[in-house]
Amino acid sequence: MRKLLLSSLVLGFLVASCGSKSRSKGELVGVQGKKWYPEKPYGMELIPRGSFIMGKSEEDQGKLLNAPTRTVTVRSFYMDDTEITNSEYRQFVEWVKDSVTRTKLAILADNLGLGPEDEDSIGEFAFQSADTTDLSVWEKYKIDNYLGFGDDPYEKEKLNKNIDLVWETDEYVDEYYAEIMDSLYLSEEETYNGQRTIDVKQLKYKYNWMDIEAAARSKSGKRSDFIRSEQLEIYPDTTVWIRDFEYSYNEPMHNDYFWHDAYSDYPVVGVTWRQAKAFCHWRTKFKNDDQKSRGKQFVNQFRLPTEAEWEYAARGGIEGGTYPWGGPYVISDTGCFMANFKPQRGDYAADAALYTVEAKSYEPNDYNLYNMAGNVSEWTNSSYDPGAYEFVSTMNPNAGTGQNQRKVIRGGSWKDVAYFLQVSTRDYEYQDSARSYIGFRTVQDYMGEEDSEQQRRRSSR
Q1: pTM for this predicted structure
Q2: 319/367 same-domain check
């Protein structure tokens, strides 16, 4: 019996060894995995790596003395071909509204002791942990060891999104459901014309992120010391259309611009730098939740572009160009304006637009990016420092610091003169400020390196 057992062990070892050798033949080949093929993100364009002269290559007409020329290099990245639109940002708002509503329903169901087995009641919207019949061993372990601890006992609970929310009042499932839905709206005293709207101050997005730069530069501290928590209201400030322009009638834009379908494809405005960052985090989560459900590898995070990335992409591969289309003029050969801005002596409508235009308007630059000049200025990830070009790195430069609340905006807008449309012109706004002329677009790092054939094809365009 002992010899038989020993023989079985030896045979098992030989089989395992043979299987290993058949794959690597004893060579250092690395961990075997699937070959990585980068997937082009929807609605984005690949900006190839390269070097360019960043800054004012001609006379600084504004006499700002804050953009001396410097040769820098940036890595490859994807960039949205348009500014983020009202429709795209509304998807973020609707997701947050859905999550806030389900959380309120689930908490009340938990307080009432109701669960999924209580049909035709608020219990159908209970946290998934309330129903343990189909939970895996790992999910049960997490419930026993992680849920209910910390400042927020519901923070790690998983919402039940298998049942659709009901918004029609005559279809509410019970009085508790009606109570929660009632709490989401403005009070009766704050309504008029019979229209009761959602209290947008309740639409808050909470997320955590790790300050990698601070952690890398620190000589001590635990990983948890560098995890930051953010929670903020994410609904755009529609009052910017009135507050930005005193003694001006812009009430129709305040009332309709963000939510009406007529403006769905126009760039979102009234969004602060912090709200733009929250959108980037949500977009990454939204995509990776889908990747996880399909058993696919996570994608790189979506983020705001650095100032250098933005200028490099805006130039479209044209070295020394004044504008995204080259320049030096803002009018085409056929006498048409090349962007949406304030031409001539304040004639806002001379370029065929009074305010913003649809995100895919005018001709794109050579990287197929629309409105890199005009329409709306765009938030970048970089902090504004007049002397930044003197001390930032020449490789992927970025003057990012949490203490500096002035953030670089680029590209000029519908209310700016042509000087601010130049690809090298710098401007800034405070990170908690929202404006009727500032929007944003996102980028995503390219995974790996572009091959020489890709570079050759692009250089021959």
Answers
A1: 0.89
A2: yes
